[in-house]
Write a structure and sequence with these properties.
315 residues; mainly alpha; Four Helix Bundle (Hemerythrin (Met), subunit A)
């Protein structure tokens, strides 16, 4: 026989439901007031997060300044010093990023955590670009190429020119004077043309344009060798010491030019500057935008009984 609750039992059920609801409400209130029992502590936690974001912004700025200095430095030692400073500042940002992640895990909103994740992705890209920029910057191959072009190469050219000038002067009254002047002038002008193409090659970013410049240099070098060989074939210049010195200077010039072109092809200064002004700048903007948004989100996070970062509305 199935029993049914009597009237007394049925009257107890609503009270049990009401009691459970009241108990749940009390627990919710206890949790709420316990969570907000110490606004000063929550305010301090918020201030810590804001301070960390500010320190990350400053460290990013320091890293960017050191990176630019590494790219623009004119010696390997200075480039390396600034590159080390940039890497140290990037490492500081990474330490602060991890510390901020810990604080956000303890008390950050989902919006703040999403913005922190957004920054982490942007900062990862920035670090990848920085690594490449700094790796290139410390090599200074373009600067070394310039130093060779306007140092040893220019010296060899000057020595060759002086030797050929002596050859022309010594044979000014000979039957071959006109021929000597023509050939010597051709060699002197040809090597000067090669020299004028070196600087554009060193500054050039495009491999195709460098190919064309090198082809022009090769043609000029062929003509210079032909002029020197034609001079050496003249009976009056057989065994001429100045002509031999000119030929030796041109050979040395060719060796230096080969080193210049190899360094220029590496193009580390041009490439690092291009990366710094393009990809690095764009990645930096994304990082700073994420940090600015994160800072604002933290400031706008409400704390019961406390206003922060905005004026109190009058009642």
């Amino acid at each position: 026989m199935t029993s049914t609750p009597d009237a007394g039992d049925r009257s107890v059920v609503p009270w049990m439901v009401a009691g459970a609801a009241i108990l749940a409400l009390l627990l919710l209130l206890v949790w709420h007031f316990a969570r907000n029992a110490n606004p000063a502590q929550e305010l301090a936690l918020k201030a810590s997060r804001v301070d960390l974001v500010g320190r990350m912004q400053l460290a990013l700025a320091s890293a960017a300044e050191a990176e630019k200095s590494a790219v623009l430095a004119i010696t390997d030692q200075d480039s390396q010093t600034f590159a080390d400073q940039a890497r140290a500042a990037d490492a500081e940002v990474e330490r602060e990023r991890q510390e901020l992640g810990t604080l956000l895990a303890r008390g950050g909103t989902q919006r703040e955590k999403d913005l922190a994740t957004q920054f982490s992705r942007a900062f990862g890209d920035l670090q990848r670009i920085d690594d490449e920029v700094l790796r290139l910057a410390v090599q200074n191959t373009n600067l070394k190429a310039y130093a060779l072009a306007f140092g040893p190469a220019a010296d060899a050219l000057a020595e060759m020119d002086a030797s050929l000038a002596r050859v022309v002067a010594r044979h000014a009254g000979s039957p071959d004077a006109k021929r000597v002047v023509l050939l010597a002038s051709g060699a002197r002008i040809g090597v000067l043309r090669i020299q004028t193409l070196l600087a554009p090659h060193i500054a050039e970013e495009s491999d195709a344009k460098m190919d064309r410049l090198e082809a022009s240099m090769a043609r000029e070098a062929t003509e210079v060798r032909k002029d020197l060989d034609a001079l050496a074939a003249l009976p009056a210049l057989k065994g001429d010491a100045d002509l031999a010195a000119a030929a030796a200077s041109f050979a040395r010039y060719g060796e230096v030019r080969a080193r210049i072109l190899a360094l220029s092809r590496e193009n580390t200064n041009v490439r690092s500057l291009s990366l710094s002004l393009d990809q690095k700048r764009k990645a930096m903007i994304l990082c700073l935008d994420a940090l600015n948004a994160l800072r604002q989100a933290i400031l706008e996070e409400p704390i019961a009984g406390v206003t922060y970062g905005r004026p109190v509305s009058p009642r």
